Amino acid sequence: LPGKLTATTFALERPCCAFARHANASDTIWLAVAFADASSAFQNPPSRADVPLYGQLPTARSYMTLEMPAAAYACSVPSSGILRVGGDTACMREGGRDPCNGPLPSPGPYRVKFLVMGCHGPKAETRWSDPILLRRAGSPSAIDPEPTRPSSAPVVLASILASLGAALAAAAIAAVGAKTWGSLRRRDSGTRRSYRTHHIPPVLPQPLPPGCRCSPPGLGCLAPRPPALPATK
Questions:
Q1: What are phi and psi of 92, to 5 degrees?
Q2: Residue 20 structural domain
Q3: pLDDT per residue as tens digits for the range 142-155
Q4: 29 beta partners
Q5: Vertex 198, ends 194 and 204: CA angle to 5°?
Q6: Which of 117, 133, 120, 107 is nearest to 32 (CA)?
Q7: 149 located within any domain
Q8: Is residue 107 within 8 Å of residue 86, measured between CB atoms?
């Protein structure tokens, strides 16, 4: 159970439907609490008037508390009920009222059992529980007021892990950048157009001297042909 043990209390699950064949509507069910080394010497009280009370715990080493009607443990009651032993701090102020469920005075260990009490005394009981040891409070003199400083090993390990993480991140960024740059270069090379690095104007043909016409290479200029004569009949 969460928070089952403290320095002065412990919790129990309510044993619903455990006394259906042994208890009547007029019966009551008690919880007997005893130090573990004194549980074997515990004697069931013959009547309610003889029930050992909380105030007798330091001397009698046992007491009975949490008196409830048998209907509180019926099968119809949800099994999630919790009984907290030692949770009634008013017992210390009221001088051990009956029945008292005051804080437990020491870590124990303790044992508990349930006891069915009728008009003529005990009718049924459970076995004693395993020893229950409460939490121990630390001595104030043993508590170091200075905050605990971390050792150098975790700091070095954290630095190494941080450096590795930064290196991996840089490598990933570089790989992504190289891949992006390569794809851009390939795209630019596929769409590039040809161009001239220098503008050279075309050479225009030189005009021929008057009275010359072009001849095959190496023959110079030829005289112009005489005009053709008209044909005669």
A1: -70, -30
A2: 10-134
A3: 777 776 665 667 77
A4: 68, 116
A5: 105
A6: 117
A7: no
A8: no
